[in-house]
Amino acid sequence: MIFRSILAWALGLAAGLPLAAPAAAQETVKVGLIATLTGPQAASGRQKVAGARLYMAEKGNMVAGKRIELIIKDDTGVADVTRRHAQELIVNDKVAALAGFSLTPLALAVAPVITQAKTPAIIMTAGTSIITERSPYFVRVSFTLPQQTVPVAEWVAKEGAKTAVSLVSDYGPGIDAQDAFKMRFEERGGKVIDQLKAPLANPEFAPFLQKARDLKPDVLFLFVPAPTAGALMRQVIDRGLTSANIRVVGTGDITDDDQLNGIGDNVLGLITSHFYSAAHGSAANQKFVAEFKKANPGMRPNFIGVSGYDGMHAFYEALKKTNGDTSGDKLVEAMKGLTWESPRGMMTIDPQTRDVIQDVYIRKVEKKDGELYNVEFDVVKQVKDPIHK
Ligand code: VNL
Fold this sequence. Notes:
Elements (H helix, E strand, L loop, with lengths): L1 H13 L8 H4 L1 E8 L6 H18 L2 E2 L2 E9 L4 H13 L5 E4 L3 H14 L3 E3 L14 E3 L4 H14 L4 E7 L2 H16 L3 E8 L7 H10 L3 E5 L5 H10 L8 E5 L8 H4 L7 E4 L8 H13 L7 H19 L6 H8 L3 E4 L2 E5 L6 E13 L2 E13 L6
Parallel strand pairs: 1-3, 1-4, 4-5, 5-6, 7-8, 7-9, 9-10, 10-11
Antiparallel strand pairs: 2-3, 11-14, 12-13, 13-14, 14-15
Helix pairs in contact: 3-12, 4-5, 6-7, 12-13
The protein binds 4-hydroxy-3-methoxybenzoate (VNL).
């Protein structure tokens, strides 16, 4: 008899019948952070997770009466794994939003999934222009490559450079950077004499660097994803390019704050344009850098870390605006037009494109207190992506 009633109770539970679920469980809002934590791009995942966690540690985990829970998944840098995590986080964990996405193909892989599920996805790295057009549920807090490239193309033209060669990783953001560099440099009277592309996986840069050197351009423009920067820049140095009569420039991915000290003094004086530097002088950034270092001994934040931090901000502010309503359409609507002071400077989510509008700085590698930094010395204010404005 007792056994039978226990059985009946258990069956009732399994069928989801009487016993009400605990109220607290219903008040949890989950965010699925898909980061690349292993493999050659692992440095990007470490930064993103550290940035997102720091934001939550500073602001607490209660927003609009809901408890925020961050679920972190490692996609190992493989698009099929990113897509599988996205599906499981949406279907099984019922996340209100996804975030993360390091390499461009990883972001593109989830576009159909988030569109079908109407789940917002906050892009914290991937920088190919087209991504935000692939789903109305993408919101980007990182950057686009054309946005970062145009300022340095203008800068070298203004400095009197007449000829240039570009060398980039052969995939979305590299092609975007190369095209944007050529467009703006040639508009300003320069000539791009060759556009070189190295494979993304296991790149061997030496033959491309030799070719660039032989072409004797005034400028060599470089882009690779940040975790690959150390490998590229060591070969740039070994080939003597920083001491040849060629001005080496790039987007800030090639001198990112995570890799820069490991690259070494040979890149002192190198000019890049980018939206974030750990040396940015604002009070907000000084606090951010200090807190980030305290929470993550041995690390300093880079543009991916700050995007992890800002991505959580976008989500928190959106949930406040919807008063805790987690409808995907309402959250995306609430993120459109958000403006705030990030450690990087002022930023806005463009209500038309869901992409980020932000200042892009021209910086020079300098040594301060025994460490290498990208020191900002000029700025182009509030730049929109020049491709899909
Ligand atoms: C991408 C662009 C990735 C820039 C990066 O590092 C980066 C991308 C992971 O769009 O794949 O620095």
